[in-house]
Fold this sequence. Notes:
Largest sheet: 7 strands, mixed
Strand content: over 45%
Order of helices and strands: EEEEEEEEEEE
Shape: globular
Radius of gyration: 13 Å
Structural class: mainly beta
Number of helices: 0
Oligomer: single chain
Number of strands: 11
Amino acid sequence: xxxxxxxGGGLVQAGGSLRLSCKTSGVTYDAMGWFRQAPGSGRxxxxxxxxxxxxxxxxxxxxxxxxxxxxxESNNTQYLQMNNLKPEDTALYYCAVDPIxxxxxxxxxxxxxxxxxxxxxxxx
Length: 124
């Protein structure tokens, strides 16, 4: 049974930081992505990481600088470090297994499995 479980969300003041975690089991994969969805908006790509031929990370231009994706292979856990958070970062954050990862555009429709999401709320 495939499990994808996010954690680490919460309420933080503007300018603060959070680190999200995503632990997977029951599936093998070569890439992982983080996405978010604010109320009334579509799902937006934040970052992805792939490792089949050496580790590589990709970020849309709008996400560069404040978000960092990483992975610990030994425990099948991926992380999203978020710094200098802003109220507009408020959203439900998801990790996804095996999105197409190789450019700055992350298409959520390409992912195989999704977690349930973890809520991030940034107060002003």
